[in-house]
Protein backbone atom coordinates (compact mmCIF):
# COMPACT_ATOMS: atom_id res chain seq x y z
CA UNK A 1 0.00 0.00 0.00
CA UNK A 2 1.28 3.47 -0.84
CA UNK A 3 -0.09 4.62 2.50
CA UNK A 4 2.52 2.66 4.44
CA UNK A 5 5.37 3.79 2.23
CA UNK A 6 4.33 7.42 2.51
CA UNK A 7 3.66 7.21 6.21
CA UNK A 8 6.94 5.51 7.03
CA UNK A 9 8.91 8.22 5.28
CA UNK A 10 7.80 10.75 7.90
CA UNK A 11 7.07 8.59 10.93
CA UNK A 12 9.56 9.13 13.71
CA UNK A 13 11.76 11.59 11.83
CA UNK A 14 12.67 15.16 12.59
CA UNK A 15 10.98 18.36 11.59
CA UNK A 16 13.06 18.85 8.43
CA UNK A 17 12.09 15.45 6.96
CA UNK A 18 8.42 16.04 7.80
CA UNK A 19 8.53 19.46 6.13
CA UNK A 20 10.05 17.91 3.00
CA UNK A 21 7.30 15.27 2.83
CA UNK A 22 4.58 17.86 3.46
CA UNK A 23 6.03 20.17 0.79
CA UNK A 24 5.68 17.32 -1.74
CA UNK A 25 2.12 16.56 -0.65
CA UNK A 26 0.87 20.13 -1.03
CA UNK A 27 1.88 20.13 -4.69
CA UNK A 28 -0.99 17.72 -5.37
CA UNK A 29 -3.37 18.46 -2.46
CA UNK A 30 -4.93 21.80 -1.54
CA UNK A 31 -6.55 22.32 1.86
CA UNK A 32 -9.36 24.89 1.97
CA UNK A 33 -11.95 26.12 4.46
CA UNK A 34 -9.97 24.96 7.49
CA UNK A 35 -11.98 25.26 10.67
CA UNK A 36 -10.29 24.87 14.05
CA UNK A 37 -12.47 24.16 17.07
CA UNK A 38 -12.51 22.78 20.60
CA UNK A 39 -9.23 24.40 21.59
CA UNK A 40 -8.00 23.40 25.04
CA UNK A 41 -4.78 24.80 26.53
CA UNK A 42 -3.12 23.36 29.63
CA UNK A 43 -0.53 25.91 30.72
CA UNK A 44 0.83 23.76 33.57
CA UNK A 45 1.73 20.81 31.35
CA UNK A 46 2.49 23.06 28.36
CA UNK A 47 0.08 21.22 26.05
CA UNK A 48 -2.75 22.16 23.74
CA UNK A 49 -5.34 20.18 21.81
CA UNK A 50 -7.89 21.05 19.13
CA UNK A 51 -9.93 19.54 16.32
CA UNK A 52 -9.93 20.64 12.70
CA UNK A 53 -11.93 20.00 9.58
CA UNK A 54 -10.85 20.96 6.06
CA UNK A 55 -11.92 20.47 2.48
CA UNK A 56 -9.21 18.53 0.65
CA UNK A 57 -8.92 19.28 -3.07
CA UNK A 58 -6.65 16.91 -5.02
CA UNK A 59 -5.32 18.27 -8.32
CA UNK A 60 -7.33 15.50 -9.98
CA UNK A 61 -10.46 13.93 -8.54
CA UNK A 62 -13.27 14.88 -6.24
CA UNK A 63 -12.81 16.91 -3.09
CA UNK A 64 -13.57 15.46 0.33
CA UNK A 65 -13.50 16.49 3.97
CA UNK A 66 -10.79 15.57 6.45
CA UNK A 67 -11.42 15.71 10.18
CA UNK A 68 -8.43 15.67 12.51
CA UNK A 69 -7.50 15.89 16.16
CA UNK A 70 -4.24 17.61 17.12
CA UNK A 71 -2.12 17.53 20.27
CA UNK A 72 0.72 20.02 20.68
CA UNK A 73 3.52 19.78 23.23
CA UNK A 74 5.51 22.92 24.03
CA UNK A 75 9.04 23.51 25.27
CA UNK A 76 9.66 24.13 28.97
CA UNK A 77 9.37 27.91 28.53
CA UNK A 78 6.31 27.50 26.26
CA UNK A 79 7.85 29.48 23.40
CA UNK A 80 7.99 26.67 20.78
CA UNK A 81 6.15 23.53 19.78
CA UNK A 82 8.42 20.55 20.38
CA UNK A 83 6.06 17.75 19.32
CA UNK A 84 2.84 17.41 17.33
CA UNK A 85 0.57 14.37 17.35
CA UNK A 86 -2.06 14.31 14.62
CA UNK A 87 -4.95 11.84 14.38
CA UNK A 88 -6.82 11.41 11.11
CA UNK A 89 -9.26 8.86 9.75
CA UNK A 90 -7.40 5.98 8.07
CA UNK A 91 -9.45 6.20 4.87
CA UNK A 92 -8.68 9.91 4.51
CA UNK A 93 -4.96 9.28 5.06
CA UNK A 94 -5.03 6.53 2.43
CA UNK A 95 -6.74 8.83 -0.03
CA UNK A 96 -4.23 11.62 0.53
CA UNK A 97 -1.24 9.27 0.40
CA UNK A 98 -2.40 7.66 -2.84
CA UNK A 99 -2.80 11.09 -4.43
CA UNK A 100 0.67 12.19 -3.28
CA UNK A 101 2.41 8.92 -4.26
Describe the protein.
With 101 residues, this protein is of the alpha+beta class. The protein has one domain (2-100): Nuclear Transport Factor 2, Chain: A (Roll). The chain has three helices and four strands, in the order ααββββα. The chain is globular, with a radius of gyration of 15 Å. This is SnoaL-like domain-containing protein.
List the helices and strands and how they pair.
Layout: H1 2-10, H2 15-25, E1 29-42, E2 47-58, E3 64-74, E4 81-88, H3 90-100
Antiparallel strand pairs: 1-2, 2-3, 3-4
Question: Top keywords for this entry?
Answer:
101 residues, alpha+beta, Nuclear Transport Factor 2, Chain: A, four-stranded antiparallel beta sheet, 45% strand, globular, disordered N terminus, SnoaL-like domain-containing protein
Q: Report the uncertain regions.
A: 1-10
CATH first level: Alpha Beta
Summarize the main sheet: 4 strands, antiparallel
Tally of structural domains: 1
Using the alpha-carbon principal axes, give the shape: globular
Mean pLDDT rating? 83
The Cα radius of gyration reads 15 Å
CATH architecture grouping: Roll
- Number of helices in the DSSP assignment: 3
Number of β-strand runs: 4
CATH fold category name: Nuclear Transport Factor 2, Chain: A
Estimate what percentage of residues fall within beta strands. Answer: 35-45%
Please list the strands of the largest sheet in the order they lie side by side. Answer: 1-2-3-4
* Protein structure class: alpha+beta
H and E order: HHEEEEH
Organism: Penicillium desertorum
Protein name: SnoaL-like domain-containing protein
